[in-house]
Automatic annotation (TrEMBL):
Pfam families: PK, PK_C. It is an enzyme of class 2 (transferase). The keyword Transferase applies. It catalyses: pyruvate + ATP = phosphoenolpyruvate + ADP + H(+). It comes from the Bacteria. Residues 2-325 form the Pyruvate kinase barrel domain. GO terms for molecular function: ATP binding; kinase activity; magnesium ion binding; potassium ion binding; pyruvate kinase activity. The keyword Cell membrane does not apply. This is Pyruvate kinase. Pathway: Carbohydrate degradation; glycolysis; pyruvate from D-glyceraldehyde 3-phosphate: step 5/5. InterPro entries: Pyr_Knase, Pyrv/PenolPyrv_kinase-like_dom, Pyrv_kinase-like_dom_sf, Pyrv_Knase-like_insert_dom_sf, Pyrv_Knase_brl, Pyrv_Knase_C, Pyrv_Knase_C_sf, Pyrv_Knase_insert_dom_sf.
């Protein structure tokens, strides 16, 4: 069994039910929709098709709505692009149109002139073109080109030294999120978050408009400000995506692997799922076989204890979407079978976490000791709100973790947690839910007859309890 989850971005290369069925069979666990691209009509088609494909296979699928956020972009430029050369002075102009006779004035679509200061760095074209702000006058930002190249329309701009004051939750995001709420999508990912208040704004919006369901909030770590204020952001989000594309431009590239490890560890200690994203199998957009570096990148994310790894262009636009999923699946299986991703039992010793009145440090230690001696084939965790399952999943017990809940919303959000297989059960007392689960195990033949399993639940006193039996 594969424990680390696979997230696949959907797009033109993966929009048919047939292709989506093959991706699900190859190992896709969660679908992602990138709202920086595509129309609402196309996203609606993708949602309908992936849900239909999963239902036909007898599976459930959770969907992440990834909002565009306040991306600063260049305006409209000539189709052939505009060449800027090292040593040249340019002007980044808000609300201006490009004029072919004034090549050094470049239009931008956001009022970032309010926040930039002399000495701030600016990166364009994925960091290949570099500038430094010399001064700001009215709505014009004057910059000195340090590394030149050709600029094209609507390309993103990164300013790592600048704390943006304009809202992180844009009017486009609001429109898109209303669509996502109507479609009852399980997760929403927020782009270019800087502080915890950015998450609070979106959660209030979901509470106000999410009549039938409220998605869990994934925070994308893309800016140095998000790294600096990570602990306060972690307190208010439901999960973390380490989006290494923009992050690798905004912080020194050589720092990304260590930052990745640090953020995963900090999230793991508090039971918040983590996703590693960007360029994991980038070469498979065009080629049927990845590079050794890409394979090592996936293995490193597994060894670092990420809950999920993500494919972007590989499955959205690439030539080999199914093969990309299968390759990622195979790398995960091989890595998880090794000893290198094992989590030491004393990993949480200095970070005891409480859930209500339950001291997880002492009580889960007792459960883990039983697991090590009894070696059950599976865990069944009864978790109305999903929290107990997520807290146990952080210990990385390398056996299937079935999370039993009566909440349909909780059921879908648990798909993101490591090794967790959600089960939707009737809203009944523990003994009846246990009987329901045992019948389902037999009907679906989830385990071999005579297998030892452990049931974990909170008893009526609110204490952690467990039972061991054969099924």
């Amino acid at each position: 069994m594969k424990y680390t989850k696979i997230i696949c971005t959907l797009g033109p290369a993966s929009q048919t039910k047939t292709k989506l069925s093959r991706m699900l069979s190859a190992g896709m666990d969660i679908a992602r929709l990138n709202f920086s691209h595509g129309t609402l009509a196309h996203h609606r088609l993708l949602i309908r098709n992936v849900r239909a494909a999963a239902a036909k296979l007898g599976k459930s699928i959770a969907i992440i709505q990834d909002l565009q956020g306040p991306r600063v972009r260049l305006g409209v430029l000539p189709k052939a692009g505009v060449l800027v050369e090292a040593g040249q002075e340019v002007i980044l102009a808000y609300n201006k149109k490009f004029h072919p006779k004034i090549l050094h004035i470049l239009p931008i679509d956001s009022p970032f002139y309010r926040d930039v200061r002399p000495g701030h760095r600016i990166f364009l074209q994925d960091g290949l073109i570099q500038m430094e702000v010399t001064h700001v006058r009215n709505t014009l930002c004057y910059a000195h080109v340090k590394k030149g190249g050709t600029l094209f329309s609507h390309k993103g701009l990164n300013a790592p030294d600048t704390f943006f004051s304009f809202p992180s939750f844009t009017s486009k995001d609001k429109k898109d999120l209303l669509f996502g709420l109507r479609q009852q999508l399980e997760f929403v990912a927020l782009s270019f978050v800087q502080r915890s208040k950015d998450v609070d704004v979106v959660r209030r919006f979901c509470k106000l408009h999410g009549r039938r369901s409220r998605p869990h909030i994934i925070v994308k770590i893309e800016r140095p400000q998000a790294v600096e204020y990570f602990d306060e952001i972690l307190d208010v989000c439901d999960a973390v995506m380490i989006a290494r594309g923009d992050l690798g431009i905004e912080i020194p590239l050589q720092d990304v692997p260590i930052v990745q490890k640090d953020l995963i560890t900090r999230a793991l200690r508090v039971g918040k799922p983590t996703i590693i994203a960007t360029h994991m199998l980038e070469s498979m957009i065009e080629k049927p076989r990845p590079t050794r570096a890409e394979v090592s990148d996936i293995a490193s994310a597994v060894v670092d204890h990420a809950d999920a790894v993500m494919l972007s262009g590989e499955t959205a636009n690439g030539k080999y979407p199914v093969e990309s999923v299968r390759m990622m699946h195979d790398v995960i299986i091989r890595t998880e079978a090794s000893r290198y991703n094992d989590l030491p039992l004393d990993f949480f010793t200095d970070q005891a976490k409480n859930l209500g009145d339950v001291n997880f440090r002492s009580q889960l230690d007792s459960v883990l000791q039983k697991l090590s001696s009894q070696k059950p084939r599976a865990l069944f965790v009864f978790t109305p709100d999903g929290q107990l399952a997520r807290m146990i999943a952080r210990y990385r017990p390398e056996i299937p973790l079935y999370a039993v809940t009566h909440s349909r919303d909780v059921y879908h959000t648990l798909f993101l947690s490591w090794a967790t297989i959600p089960i939707l059960a009737p809203n009944q007392v523990f003994t009846r839910q246990r009987s329901f689960v045992l019948r389902m195990v037999k009907q679906r033949k989830l385990l071999h007859k005579g297998s030892n399993v452990t049931f974990i639940f909170l008893n009526i006193e609110g204490n952690l309890a467990f039972e061991m039996l054969q099924v």
